[in-house]
Every structure is written in C-alpha cells, then in structure tokens.
Amino acid sequence: xxxxxxxxxxxxxxxxxxxxxxxxxxxxxxxxxxxxxxxxxxxxxxxxxxxxxxxxxxxxxxxxxxxxxxxxxxxxxxxxxxxxxxxxxxxxxxxxxxxxxxxxxxxxxxxxxxxxxxxxxxxxxxxxxxxxxxxxxxxxxxxxxxxxxxxxxxxxxxxxxxxxxxxxxxxxxxxxxxxxxxxxxxxxxxxxxxxxxxxxxxxxxxxxxxxxxxxxxxxxxxxxxxxxxxxxxxxxxxxxxxxxxxxxxxxxxxxxxxxxxxxxxxxxxxxxxxxxxxxxxxxxxxxxxxxxxxx
Length: 295
Known about the structure:
Blueprint: H1 7-25, H2 27-37, E1 44-45, E2 53-58, E3 65-70, H3 74-86, E4 94-98, E5 103-107, E6 111-114, H4 123-138, E7 148-149, H5 166-179, E8 187-189, E9 198-201, E10 204-207, E11 213-215, H6 238-253, H7 257-279, H8 285-293
Parallel strand pairs: 7-11
Antiparallel strand pairs: 1-2, 2-3, 3-5, 4-5, 6-9, 8-11, 9-10
Helix pairs in contact: 4-6, 5-7, 7-8
C-alpha cells in the first residue's frame, strides 16, 4: 500500500532509518490489525502523504466516515493525540486511539478543503481565519504532558554553522534565548499552524497535524509566514505579503509587531536548518523569508 517510489516511503526511511524500514515491512499486517480493531472497511490512503500514513475509511457498525493516522514514531503520534483531545472543538475530533499500535481514529472533516485551496478567499481573508484560530488556541489553558519547549528547537540551528551568514545564525539563536527566557505566559501551541493544516468542516474550520510545543503564544503565527511554500499572492512582493499578514495579526489579536517579526525569522531559520540537514542546500521559501526578515 506504500510504494517504495512514494515520498512517504522515502521520508520514513530517511527520517527513521532501520526502525522505519521495519515498520514499512510489516505495514500490510499493521493495517489489517487496525481494520479489525475498530471493525473498519478497507483503509484507503489519502493523497500527498509526507511522514505518517493517513487513510480514509468507514466504521462498519454505523457507516461513519473516519480518518486513520498511524506511523512508526509512536511517541509523537501519542503527543498529537493528547493535543487534539485538549483542543477538541477547534481541532479534528479524536474518536479512538491505541498507543501500542501507534494509531488514532478521527472524524473525517467534510468537505475537508484546506485553507490554501479555498480560492474564493484572498490572502487577507485567509490570514483573518488563521488569526481567529490562533486566538482560540491561545485562549485554552496549558496542560501537562510530554511536549517539548520551543527552546529545544534552537539546537537544530547548529547544522547551519558555516553554511549561512554567521550574523543570521547569531540572530536566530539570540531570538530563541531571549523569547524563551520568561515562560510565565507560555501556552500549549500547535507549532505548525499554516494554510494546509486548517480544513473546512461544515460551517467552520478545524486544525489538524499539530507538532505540539510549549512556548510563547506569539510563536503560533510564525510558521504561516513561510509555509505552505506555494500559498503566496503572485501580485505583490514577498516582503509586502509578510508585512501585510503581520499587520492583520497585530490588529486582530494584538501581537507585537517586533516580536512577530523576530519569531517569523527564527522559525524560518529552523525550517532552513531542517531542509539543509536533508539536502545540504540553501534553497526554498523558508530561507528567502529569513533573508527578508533578517534586518
């Protein structure tokens, strides 16, 4: 069911190496166990999978359409399940889970159109929806759990030593140090909130695929400044889009402009580091965004 030529297969092997290969080898049996566990119809993979398997199916008992998510990184999937349950209502609803199998069954969002593909909405309207989502998420109290703090991401910058302007690297490290020092206002964050992770469900919007970090609430806006990589208006320069998005967020949820700019730069540098670690190349939108925000 997972083709060796697919991005999912390659990403699993690259990221988790031997454990990933072992998980892939037993995948057909794994899926059969999940189908039997919850009496499901055959699970069909959805398109454009990246690091985890996600499939659609129905419960035989009542015909309810559901989504199955599973993968070899059981701990991260369990953190995701905790996060989704904490934010029930604004996030896709968790119906069942089994930590031993590393699988979660969720409601299927209908029609499930991503914010990126909602072509009737311009960039301003999409940014307002994200702003409302951030405000709702930040209104929830922090919970205990095995969630990483944003400060732990700073070490991922090390791979960029010698590859980028040292002033950019120093600036990114300084931002992480400064903006994670006072943790009195920390919240549980989605950590990967962008246009592809917000889906239409009936008459509302719901979030999916949280990374789950503890940290400064302002960080929640950072990822949507560079991701997804193909969600920028084509009729204005990148810098103007970044400035416009931050202006809307400042007006709607009162995030400080300088703090937003700092986190957007630092997050883009982290994404650049992840890309560089995989490819040894400084290519792509995250690095361009970092360059735009470096001053």
